[in-house]
Amino acid sequence: MKWPYRYDLLQRYRLIEIVAIWEGKLNAGHLIDHFGIGRQQASKDINNYLNEIAPGNLVYNSSLKGYEPSSDFKPVVTSCVVDEYLQLVQRNSDLTSTFESLVLGFNHTTRVPLPSFQIKPEVIRPIVKACRLGERLEVDYRSVNSPNKDGRIIVPHSIVHSGMRWHVRAYCEKNQEFRDFVLTRFFEIPESAGTATISPESDDSWHTKVNVCFKPDPRLSPAQQEVVANDYGMKEGILVIKVRAALVHYLLQMMKIDPNILQGKPTAQQIVIDNLEAIEKWLFK
């Protein structure tokens, strides 16, 4: 079905819906900051969304000084999947390229579908709020190694995409260290536990930047190494990627490198780390 609105209007309506669903609060400032439009146009867009697109989806909350989703909210211009919100956040945190912020949808372009990890808006909202306001959260977080119900207090500061899953970087009061928590593993709605006393600035591995240097596996023939170097855009046989130390392990996973592998076929891995000693302490044990 052909959408009867211009592309730029559709994007603004999508932002209205995405922010309302996943942050729980929307005002004209979101549209003003994101699209660089005036307050009058932003207010008009919100009113048009309420009157023409989805009547009854939003209700005004005077204490919040903004709109929040109604109890009968039904998405109209989005699919209500968490990736829509998290990818929006990701694109807007890295605007090094103007065109990266546009979703043009060329019909000759596709990608391999990945699992759609189910994360409830009710889980995301308090985490986003805690990141913004510096709050502690009481959470029910479970993992494969610890599958039983286990309450703990965390202090989140950043949401991270590791290439496959979404995580929240947070201080764990139980373990007394900063850790990554997979967003699909929160089993209850996080509850506020007051103001945080730990600062995100003390997350040393988050604020430390590390150069990870890759090169073709020397066990490959010179011709094979040349092909691999060309694949990865290496300069003089080396590819250097600067990454937060806390994310080094995820980078290696994305590059399909297991630093613990000492033997195997060179054609299976193709590249190796050139400075393993420099990054070894940042790897998961």
Q: Which terms would index this structure?
A:
285 residues; alpha+beta; Arc Repressor Mutant, subunit A; SH3 type barrels; 3 domains; five-stranded antiparallel beta sheet; three-stranded antiparallel beta sheet; 10 helices; 10 strands; 21% strand; globular
Compact overview of the structure:
With 285 residues, the chain is an alpha+beta fold. It has ten helices and ten strands.
Structure characterization notes:
The protein is α+β, with helices and mostly antiparallel strands and 285 residues long. It has three domains: 7-101, Arc Repressor Mutant, subunit A; 121-202, SH3 type barrels (Roll), CATH 2.30.30; 208-282, no CATH class. Helix content is 33%, strand content 21%. The chain contains ten helices and ten strands. It has helices at residues 7-23, 28-35, 39-53, 82-93, 121-133, 204-207, 222-231, 248-254, 266-269, 276-279; strands spanning 58-61, 66-69, 135-140, 151-161, 166-172, 177-182, 191-195, 209-216, 239-244, 271-273. It has a five-stranded antiparallel β-sheet with strand order 6-5-4-3-7, covered by helices on one side. Strands 9-8-10 form a three-stranded antiparallel β-sheet. Helix 1 (7-23) packs across helix 3 and helix 2 (28-35) packs across helix 3 (39-53).
